Hints:
The complex is a heterodimer. Chain A has helices at 6-34, 38-43, 55-83. By secondary structure, chain A is mostly helical. Chain A has one domain. Chain B has helices at residues 3-34, 40-57, 77-96, 103-119, 126-158, 164-204, 216-232, 235-244, 250-269, 276-289, 298-329, 331-355. In chain B, helix 1 runs parallel beside helix 3. Chain B is globular, with a radius of gyration of 20 Å.
Amino acid sequence: MSWINLTALWKIVVFGLLAGAGLPAIFALGLLALSKGSRTQAAGADSDVVVGGNPAGIAAAAVCFVIVLAAIAWGIYEVYKIGHPAAK
Amino acid sequence: MNDFLLVLVVVTALGFDFTNGFHDTGNAMATSIATKALSPRVAVALSGVLNLVGAFLSLAVAATIASGLVDTSLVTLTVVAAGLAGGITWNLLTWLFGIPSSSSHALIGGVIGSTIAAAGGHAIQWHDLVAKVIIPAGLSPIIAALVAATGTWLLYRISRSLSDKARTHGFRIGQIGSASMVSLAHGTNDAQKTMGVITLALIVNKTVPSTSNAPFWVILSCALAISIGTYLGGWRVIRTLGKGLVEIESPQGMAAESASAAVILLSSSFGYSLSTTHVATGSIIGTGLGKKGAEVRWNVAGRMATAWVFTLPSAGLVGAGAEALAHLIGGTAGVIVDLVILVAVAATVYLRSRATKVDRNNVNDEWTGSVAPAEPEPEPAEAA
Lengths: 88, 384
């Protein structure tokens, strides 16, 4: 019997990076896209306005946020499936 | 069969579950409270509800906690009760000092200690204890720190063209989602551990067959106990995690929470019932390492790590002592004496905690080197 399950270890590291760092990074890309446009520029650097008003930016942001939400929903479904073997 | 003793054990287990809840609120919500993404009151309510949902979401880890680590044929109801007493005592003491130690290790340590006292060292599956508990305990905070540091670096890099206020605003909204995921993950992990212990007690008492899963009333009562405990909020631990380790901005909060949620959910699907506390602490340190100029208070981190090393043996010693005492007195009376002492300890800790109160009103006060905020004249802020 081994002391460390290396297969599980590298999977946790890789999928952990993808979900734990990748998903918030996609959320950040969404924020970046959302901030494109004249409204944030007009508001200046001392404002907390996030929505810039550029239609393409808003559309790109929506795609990013949908990807994040879909990934979370899929993750919760997987957890449920593993946790309730009969539901497989 | 001894149904009266069984009721005592179930009540004690639910008591442990309750301390597990309030000890661990901080794992999910400390960073959101510190960055003001959520008000303290809303944060603990949201976390409580999601812990309740999480407890029903996955039943994978239930019944493995005790059966995988000790020889169940040598376990009695008294052993379970003594082990729980060890776990609860350690949880309460670390909470008093605001140290985020692992509730899981407190429980495992307590049960192992009482089992050794009752049946000797051969009743412990030592290899599994090292491979499934001790090694993951060392690795999980490092992995969480790596993920959180990567995430923090990415978030600041991607959002560098946003103004400071806009960035704070945006990531505060993201934090509500990531903190919710940690609460959910906590319910799937920690509520299960108490369900496992109660199911073990039912099996030992032959109330249910040995192949039985957790009955519905066990799932429901554990879900409620951990959720109420979470809602009451372990403000002392929240303060240490949110203010003591690193001064946290909202992108760091989101990175830390995402890392914790991902690592906890992944590990449990691979069969590791690890400590959510170790993961959350690793993530918060990682988010301090991932941001240029952020300061990690290594003395606070060191104090926590020391407490982690002592958790298993200390809870084990209390569990062993409780078992020895119960054995000396004998029978149901022994367990009752144990539990009376436990209630006395809990009352003492509670009264001591009133002297240096930490609640939702002062949880975010400037960190001055101790859990209890300075009163009423705040000391000068610690030099950065």
